[in-house]
Predict the 3D structure of the following.
Amino acid sequence: MDLSEIYQSKPQDVLGNFSPKISFEIFPPKNGDISDLFERLRILKKYNPVLISLTYGASGGFNRFSYDDLKSIRDLEFNLMPHFTCVSMIKDEIEKHITTVENLGIENILALRGDIPDYIETNELDFSHANELVEFIQAKTTLSIGVAGYPEGHIESQTLKDDIKYLKKKIDAGASAIFTQLFFDNNKLYKYIENVEKTGVKAPIIAGIMPIRSLKQIQKMTSMAKVTIPQKLAEKLEKYPNDTLKIGTEFAINQCQNLIENNVNSLHFFTLNHSDQVSEILDNIL
Ligand code: FAD
């Protein structure tokens, strides 16, 4: 099923009750052993995720799931959306990768340009931006394509308006769903959705939720991306450094409840490979 169909089908259960679409992002464990991750996925299965997305490290090695891993996770009967960054690959390698993914029986892919490493000259790239990758995947496969969206703008962008203009290019090239960067200020997402829709884009926008686990984690994330931490939240995290997990969980529950009340029906959790905190959040919002 196409990503837009997955997300645009009516979010109701058989009794007609409202139920948001839930999905989870996982990343390859550093030691390469995915058995623990399998356990967590089995726990998260009870929330009926519409898909599991799998990150892709530009540097390779243990930062990437192997094709065997993808097969094993698919065999747990999850709908998969592996991420893919094209920045460090030539066209032939990209074609080989996307056709292999398709031949594994996987139906979706998150098409990303990726961060450009210092050692690469931008004029050496086969694809300079993700819209070119989307066009290529669309031409070579039947994969349904998701792309990244940035409610506060991408770190390289001068203006959010530019960023939205380029987001539209990705949709026009054939992408059918937008997965957002994490955000903590829901008003920024509401404004973003309004501005994206104004350009005529109808693809679903799936809200990226990052439950806070530690101050260090959040400082790292916000140093790499344009993400505002609401002042009250920042103060609370500073004041109670031993309670970050609890504060993060409570914040995410309120954040998700507010999103649902405002008709944001699709929540994509960056699980950081943990199931405990995400389960607690979901038990409170579903
Ligand atoms: P693009 O859409 O190409 O945008 C990059 C920049 O170029 C933006 O500033 C944009 O405004 C500008 N731009 C876009 N198109 C054009 C154009 N045609 N002409 C001029 N300027 C243009 N990274 C990983 O390494 N692995 C992952 O698994 C991963 N998963 C992610 C998941 C999500 C949900 C998100 C939001 C990001 C993820 N990233 C991941 C990070 C991503 O790779 C970086 O943010 C990267 O710098 C940009 O990738 P992109 O696909 O958004 O690029």
Q: What stands out?
A: Residues 55-56, 58, 83, 85, 112-115, 129-131, 148, 154, 156-157, 162-163, 166, 169-170, 179, 181, 208 surround flavin-adenine dinucleotide (CB under 6 Å).
